[in-house]
Prior knowledge:
By secondary structure, the chain is mostly helical. Helix content is 79%, strand content 0%.
Amino acid sequence: xxxxxxxxxxxxxxxxxxxxxxxxxxxxxxxxxxxxxxxxxxxxxxxxxxxxxxxxxxxxxxxxxxxxxxxxxxxxxxxxxxxxxxxxxxxxxxxxxxxxxxxxxxxxxxxxxxxxxxxxxxxxxxxxxxxxxxxxxxxxxxxxxxxxxxxxxxxxxxxxxxxxxxxxxxxxxxxxxxxxxxxxxxxxxxxxxxx
Length: 195
């Protein structure tokens, strides 16, 4: 592990992503929060072209347009409902997720375990005052379950993403990640099938 100046905006964006996503889940449906975070490919495209001056790759435009149309429809109907703050937090989660992916791409040659551990440690420190204020005291068993979720749902996937970002672009990474919300209903259906 070593300090790089880009670690500062990376950890800030990761913490913002986590807080806005969790807030969106509590203020709107989990499905809405997932789909709104799926605006990330559009934000990666905009940030890449406008800020980083990366060239526009024509083959990336087709899936990007379909993704933007689909998520845009969801956003349009949801923003008119009662869960506006949840929708805004979901979009914020998408923007910050896009930023996380782009910073991870810039730091792709750093130690992946270090990046994942640092991001989660900073996020835990950011959330800690709210947890203390709420008086939440997890039992030892709940801590074990939370550690399992943290390792297998967040830690391992981000390790894989950082390693993938060594060979693919940020745009490709978030486009592949769009498969998660598309395939989620299929996994739920298959898990719920009786044999």
